[in-house]
Amino acid sequence: MRDEVDAVVVGGGIAGLTAALTLASAGRRVAVLEQDRQLGGYVTSFRRRGYTFDSVVDGISGLAPGGPLRRILEYGGLDAEGLVLDLPVARSGYFGEERLDFPAEGSAWRAYLERRFPGEAASIGRLLDAILSCFEVASRGTLAALWGDGAAGIPRGDPFVRWRDRTYAEVLEEAGVRDPRLRLALCERLMFLGGGPDRISAVSVANLLGSTWRFGCQRIRGGLYRLVNSLVAAIREKGGTVKAGHVVEEVAPEGGGFVLEASPGGRFRAAQVLVACDPVAFLDRVWQGPHPEGDALDRARAFPRSGSFFLAYLGVRGRFPEAPASFGVFSDPEGTDFEDSRLEGDAPTFGVGVATNVDPSLAPEGCSTVVVHAFVPAGRTLAEGERKRLLERALVRLERFLPGVAGRVEWSETAGPATLERYTRNPGGAAYGFSQTPERFRLAHDLAASAPSGIRFAGHWTGFGGGVLAAALSGYAAARDLLGVPAAAR
Length: 490
Description:
Blueprint: E1 3-10, H1 14-25, E2 30-34, E3 45-48, E4 51-54, H2 68-75, E5 84-87, E6 89-95, E7 98-103, H3 106-116, H4 121-140, H5 143-146, H6 159-163, H7 168-175, H8 180-187, H9 202-215, E8 217-220, H10 225-237, E9 241-244, E10 247-254, E11 257-263, E12 266-275, H11 279-286, H12 296-302, E13 308-317, E14 326-330, E15 349-353, E16 367-376, H13 384-398, E17 409-415, H14 417-424, H15 438-449, E18 455-457, H16 468-483
Parallel strand pairs: 1-2, 1-12, 2-9, 6-14, 12-18
Antiparallel strand pairs: 3-4, 5-8, 6-7, 10-11, 11-12, 13-16, 13-17, 14-15, 15-16
Helix pairs in contact: 1-10, 1-16, 3-4, 4-9, 12-15
């Protein structure tokens, strides 16, 4: 017995759910199959002893009124009004002894940094204007158009064309940034991309910073699971099927469409397939048809993967009203190499979230949630004893920012690369799939171009890279491509 649908979405993370909502809203019969028993991928939450923790994500851009993710949800019939908390400060940073609080909105961010670094006002302005210009082009285009020959007719002097194959370090040099403290402040968000400016793509940074400056920074009130539950409910209301704990074992071409075998028992016949997970694993292990022509798949197999994370989740008695809700700690005020920002060593780099400072509903009254994250190499084995040691080091480091935290922890849990791999199937727990280098976009373009007819790729592996907004937009764009219409809501 087969379930006959128009499209099957393989992967129930934010890209897959956004794609499914887009297809279902257009009247397509859609089925989402997620291998884990919990939907949402990184965009999810868990509860322990009255505390609610968002698994990895610290903040989301694009959910404010008029933002692209908000418009996609509204297109799908979702009312996001009660879900969204707007954050005027996107992120804070402790750079040695200095604290900086970065406004979310672009002009406020610019004015703030110009006050702190008056001698660099011109370079700050050049960088902000160029990043926003680059982001506007990237956010409205597709990989096929923007990384194809001629860059879809974009003027040769446009920042996007200049930056398309460059690192962020080259862009900082072009803008004339000289003060090492300012350079570090301009690089602090690279913690979320897994590398220093000498390696990370300028377009990846423009997407991350530009989306925040243009659309602000938000959280989901009560935890990310509420967003996931709303998406799932909307898909089902439109006649779609969403199944967690279903592993797609095989996809084979048949009669102009596809037959999918899923475990536990399930067989689907679909006209189209949208793959919102690791495309290399899909093509190597799941796809039963002819392999793509060209060398894109071989290059993808060999391409470096991104780093992973060590994470510590703490339920803590008491509140920390003076602490930022989200901040990075940069012990070396002139260091910008975040490739392996572990808690070891004399000058560690790590991030902290105290989400209860903006949403007290996440913890029992008078209590706090604290999440610590630090980059580690993908595939690194963090046995229980080593994770415990890292947690102890984190508590020592946190004392400066959250006084008394070590003596007030009621509950704690840690995670590492193996945890991320278990939930996402990304090899080694690579947080963003492919490393976010300039070459990644050309690879993603070529991989998408080589996909078998009727199959589209989406998500942080093959869209515009890491981050909730980028992944969601890739799912939306891939779905619109299957529908044969442009991704207008971007």
